[in-house]
Each structure stands twice: as structure tokens, then as C-alpha cells.
């Protein structure tokens, strides 16, 4: 999870660099390429997964809501920064386009100091000592055996669950309507008014 976030941050920095250099290169295609790279990045789902897994149970709901909060805050800051008096002028708009690389750079520098998520270490890597060490680093010293037992129960449940590939999921008739709903909701999220808010 952590490595995926780090790679994603590299992608965002490259995208920001491409968009920031588009005026110098006099290429609107660079803006399109940079925006496409930003669009295919996995920031939101990865943030939810990693932050949810490293948070203690009592703070997990709050931690998962931070993604939506910072997404809305980022849109608001972007719209404010895009005003003609700030970065929306003809000479400064490349800086505005490249500003998406700043949060990625901050995360790229700070994330290596955080441990891998405990559930990932225990469920996928089978590293119980690494899991305990990560829990102590994240949540402090104390008795965290209940959380480790919960992860072990989840791992046991996952063994009996068949994981479908994307193609199998699309072919499965039982999930078809749920899949249609998710695709429609995701495709129309920009029409819900979040930009206005």
C-alpha cells in the first residue's frame, strides 16, 4: 500500500512538471497529457485504504472522512488560487497547473517515515512481528492483541472467500446491477454540485 502511494506521488509530480512546462514548450497537448496522468492516479482510493488500515478502530471513521474533506478543500483552494488576482493571470497559470505536485511532493518526502499498514503486513506478507512493530509505531506502546486478533479473523474469513478478477466480476449476473450503479454514480459525480460547494 505504501509503495503504491509513493509510486502514485511520483506520477503526480511528473504530471505537474509536464503541465508546468506546457507554456514554455508552447504545447497544449502537454496540459492534456498532465491532466490525463492526474486522472488515472489512484490518490483517493489509496488514501482511504492506507489511512483506514493504519488508524485505530475508534478513529477509523474520522480518518476515512479526511479524504473527502481534503478533496473538497483542494477544489476550493484551487478555485481561489485561480482568481486573476492570484495565480489566474496569463503569466502565472502554469504555476497553478503545476501546484498539484506540491501535496504529492510533501507526501513523497514524509511517507517513507510511516510504516506499512498492519493488516497488509499480517494478511498478505504473513509478518506478525512486522505487524506488531507497525502497530506500536502508529498507536504507541500498549496491549494491542485485540486488534491483531481481529486482523487474524479477517484473514481467516478471506481464505474462504473467492476473490473475483475484474473480468469475472463483469460477467457475474448477480453483481451486474450493483456494477451499473457504481459506474453511473462515478461517471456523474461531477454533476452533483461538489464543485459549487
Automatic annotation (TrEMBL):
Keywords: Membrane, Signal, Transmembrane, Transmembrane helix
Keyword presence, Transmembrane helix: yes
Pfam families reported for this sequence: Sugar_tr (PF00083)
Span of the signal peptide: 1-27
Gene Ontology MF annotations: D-glucose transmembrane transporter activity
Record-linked InterPro entries: GLUT, MFS_dom, MFS_sugar_transport-like, MFS_trans_sf
Major localisation: membrane
CC annotations in GO: plasma membrane
Gene Ontology biological process terms, A to Z: D-glucose import; dehydroascorbic acid transport
Major facilitator superfamily (MFS) profile domain location: 1-197
Membrane topology: Multi-pass membrane protein
Gene3D superfamilies with a match to the protein in the record: MFS general substrate transporter like domains
Keyword Repressor attributed: no
Localization per Swiss-Prot or TrEMBL: Membrane
Superkingdom, natural source: Eukaryota
Name of the protein described by the UniProt record: GTR5 protein
Amino acid at each position: 500500500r505504501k509503495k503504491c502511494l509513493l509510486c502514485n506521488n511520483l506520477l503526480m509530480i511528473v504530471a505537474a512538471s509536464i503541465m508546468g512546462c506546457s507554456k514554455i514548450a508552447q504545447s497544449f497537448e502537454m496540459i492534456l497529457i498532465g491532466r490525463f496522468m492526474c486522472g488515472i492516479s489512484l490518490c483517493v482510493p489509496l488514501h482511504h485504504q492506507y489511512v483506514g488500515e493504519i488508524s485505530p478502530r475508534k478513529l477509523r471513521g474520522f480518518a476515512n472522512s479526511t479524504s473527502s474533506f481534503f478533496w473538497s478543500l483542494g477544489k476550493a483552494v484551487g478555485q481561489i488560487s485561480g482568481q486573476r488576482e492570484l495565480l489566474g493571470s496569463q503569466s502565472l497559470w502554469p504555476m497553478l497547473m503545476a501546484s498539484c505536485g506540491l501535496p504529492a511532493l510533501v507526501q513523497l518526502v514524509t511517507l517513507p517515515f510511516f510504516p506499512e499498514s498492519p493488516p497488509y503486513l499480517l494478511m498478505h506478507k504473513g509478518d506478525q512481528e512486522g505487524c506488531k512493530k507497525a502497530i506500536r509505531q502508529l498507536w504507541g506502546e500498549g496491549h494491542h492483541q485485540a486488534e491483531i486478533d481481529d486482523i487474524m479473523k479477517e484473514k481467516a474469513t478471506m481464505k474462504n472467500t473467492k476473490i473475483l478478477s475484474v473480468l469475472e466480476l463483469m460477467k457475474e449476473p448477480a453483481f451486474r446491477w450493483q456494477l451499473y450503479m457504481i459506474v453511473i454514480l462515478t461517471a456523474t459525480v461531477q454533476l452533483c454540485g461538489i464543485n459549487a460547494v
